[in-house]
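Two records follow; treat each independently.
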Amino acid sequence: MKKKLLSLLCGATMLAAALTGCGSQNADTPAAAQGETQEAGSTGDAKIALITMDSIDQHWISLNEGAQKAAGELGVEVTFMSPNTKDDAQQIECVNNAVAGGYKAIIVAANGPDAISSALKEAIDTGIKVVYVDSPANVDAEATFSTDNVAAGTTAGEEMIKALDAKGITSGDIGIVNVNAATQSTVDRENGFRKAFEGTGFNLLETQYGEGDAAKSQEIAQNYITQKVVGIFGCNEGSTTGTGNAIKASGSSDIVGVGFDKSDAIQGLITDGYLLCTMAQNPDVMGYEGVKAAVAAIGGESLGGKVTDTGVSVINAAALGGSAAAAGDTVTASKAWKIALITMDSIDQHWVTLNEGAQAKAKELGVEVTFMSPNTKDDAQQIECVNNAVAGKYDAIIVAANGPDAISSALKEAIDAGIKVVYVDSPANVDAEATFSTDNVAAGTTAGEEMIKALDAKGITSGDIGIVNVNAATQSTVDRENGFRKAFEGTGFNLLETQYGEGDAAKSQEIAQNYITQNVVGIFGCNEGSTTGTGNAIKASGNSDIVGVGFDKSDAIMNLIGDGHLLCTMAQNPDVMGSMGVEACVKALEGETLGGKVEDTGVSVLTK
């Protein structure tokens, strides 16, 4: 099918897809979706055209997969009729073909805001419904499903700055490889990226355009490298692949490459250490929601031109289960080392998932990991666990400290006894072999920014906001709160005094309910229990105007998001922490010096 997409013109692609009956109703459609299928059927066997910028990039292929999934559920036909290259004339031809073909709706990712506008206006004048995915044009449509590209571009810049700072680099030239000057989504990403560098000592060079072609982008990146740049940013899949390939070909490990979009090639370049990270969108969600919106519009529902942010994740080597610095390294256990895993408690799904990652790596390496955490967050119980590990002659301890100081003496005694210590999630104030955790300040700021965007969308620019934290000693959640408060600096909002629920969902719900009686406009939960309690309190209040934002991922939290009682949660990668923690322990026990390295295991914004 891919070869066909590469070789056929728009009209032929449209015909071929139509003949194959794409997205036809399936008798095996789940019961929950059959009702939707019947509703879609009332639209008269709707034909929907999906027109993206090209049919080659994996980003668009993934978007089409999401669209086809929704088409199958709703019993409609979605024809993927995109050009084989980014070209305004070909995209306009595809729109005209959809009009001539009697399509009821067009889902489109516009090459640029203006070139396709006249064709889309003509389509709308004939009664065709238009929905945007990824990149809108300057024509009003039923709805838009896309990434907040400016914010995501800023995140990309911040990731590069952190990596350069870790190398001791605070100035130098940085190159930008973009698609063209007309594609609004990538222009927004570049603008956000440039924004991150305001006030720094870095110099951002004039942008070069490679039309999203990996080969052209590689040539541009190679030229930047000859200019001794310290970093390069690729604004889309092709730009990012070209950037990574150029850094790989240069043989230089000092250039920091950051990109956009997710593909097998990009992930391989990250794992091998040639790219630091990429901003991964959710194209499948865009496609899926785009089809649902098109069907609703065809059925007569007014969508009001709503714009929905489909989110972005930072994908780095840690998130992919490896470390660029250790790419190609292998660790072998010479014996069945005994490792104690001590987290804050043994109940929260966050810690259960961390243990699952640790156990999987332990099985792979042939070592023994004992999950010996207390049943509740309690300093005395956590200290007792450390002492038990020492008494039990464990070789290493992986620990998520309740706080930076309470457990320190016990850990010092363990280290004096020859036990290796590795931190996950939350360190104590004792030097360890390595730390694998989330950049909690940055993630907290992201949580605040998500809340501000949601409040702004409701027309709310002032009001009180509550914060439900665990306690004043757990560094990870304190950092999240500090980052969250940072996001609100200079705004009209008032952040109330923090209340502590010890990570207990019931206590946190009581706190959140008290905030609600004070007429807050938003509440932030700093960990799993705090977030669950916050969501349950908003649900119980029946007030859909309160914006709830949280931290961590669990079934309860995901259900609260799905039901609209929470806006989003910052999802860490606890399984990655556990896996990398075990690997680090084995390396240390086998004599490798890890140097106390601190590795960010990434975070994702999970929305409805």
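The next record belongs to a different protein.
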Amino acid sequence: MATKSNTSCCSPLQQHRCKYKPVLPDMLKKGPCAVKVKTGKATQSVADQATVKKMFPNTYGMPEVTFMKGANPAIGKKAVKAAVVLSGGQAPGGHNVIAGLLDGLKKANPKNKLYGFLGGPSGILEGKWKEITPKLMEGYRNTGGFDLIQSGRTKIETDEQLATALATLKKNKVNALIIVGGDDSNTNAGVLAEYFKQQGADICVIGVPKTIDGDLKNDKIETSFGFDTATKIYAEMVGNICRDVNSARKYWHFVRLMGRSASHITLEVAHKTHPNVTLVGEEVLAKKMTLKQIVDDLASVVSARAKEGKNFGVALVPEGLIEFIPEMKALIAELNDLLADHEAELAKMNTVTEKKAFIISKLPAKLAALMKSLPEGIAAQLMLDRDPHGNVQVSLIETEKLLVEMLRTRLAELKKAGKYNGKFSAIMHFFGYEGRCGVPSTFDANYTYALGYNAAALALNGCSGYLSSVRKLTRKPQQWECGGVPLTMMMNIERRKGKEKPVIRKALVELNGEPFKQFAKVRQRWAMNDDYQFPGPIQYFGPAEVTDMITFTLRFERGAKK
């Protein structure tokens, strides 16, 4: 496999970004040997405490840890071998996590080594890895993508897989495993940490919070890395569309944005661009809205703008909207169980029509009627194979097309009734993969490097079963605080593939949180006025207020002033 060892083949921007020196928190500047661990109070899981404790007897209840300045030379005396794996979808800044890990390990002891498992967790099971040296790392610093070691979605959960993973690490004398991933991947990190302790293996497992969706966060994990960069990329494209509709004035653009289980990306992009309509899945769920009600609301905005001669606009749709509609949520939950229970029978069927008829025969009456009412294409997408975690592949469900077709029908009804006299032409988009591998913003370049460096300090201190935590992110990077949060602290029990499983709880958009409340204040104005904002591309050079800007989400949630 070809690898880069220098920047000779890179674009001019990448060459300059490789030279950028991320700003470390003052706490970490002198290296892992210059910090001490301060432990807090014992913790408990966010829910289902008794069940989670029973599943994680060796790692449940551990205290939060915070790094404080102080001499700790002991951790640098023994050479260690650490390994890193990238798990799940890509997110801008992954390479800087690895760079921070490498630099932190080498700062503690030049003899420390870092290896990367190839292709995600499957690399652990297959024993595929390579050493990550400072020379190899040169061409990857501050770059997008996960191409240094690639990623994958294999989940290590069976007894055989756990035993194989442990055997691989023991055989190669690995002292620490760092798992970079989202909620599912870091749940897996917690499972591995517990298993290793059960087996008496002295192997430290550390998680790093990654997902552009922004749904892995809490008081101690203020944001997952990649969210800042991805939302800036999407906002540039949506802003361009806003400028286009304001110029052409004849189309409605419906933009579906990535975010399978939460609407953080959509809400953040809305704050950046001020579209006419923004659907927030969590609000739809709280109000128990039906598809018809959503379409009626859309028709109201389209009609009101048409009365002012504005047959154009921009609407943002979260990728996971369909799962937030209660009637659809109930259907999907039932399908999750049915498809798992009848996997063998469905595999023998050759057509979608045959599978749909079989599924309908197994559904309760109301859900069967709903399934029958869905267009064949949407029904087929709902029955597609699940991802390795048992989730519907929501990114393949073209919700924006469903909404446009239903909206077109509703507007025709209104026109027939003399309540609408406009013209409706729609253009549909899905912005998803475009945001996952962008060159990280200055914020993400700094944040991911700090997360990796901090993870090295956690690993060297033997803090197994912890998630790397860098916080106070509305401050300058030098003032960020560092430490670790027990993985079990964020867990609850959910039903996956028909079984009860421990998982890190997803952080959804809170309707009483500041990001949504600030949006709710202005959305009526945005609906009727052409109050579009045009963020433009990510800026890496220039004034700090442009290069170092943080997300509206962080700004509102942490009470920072504009």
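Discussion point: DSSP finds 22 helices and 16 strands in the chain. How would you locate this feature using only the token line?
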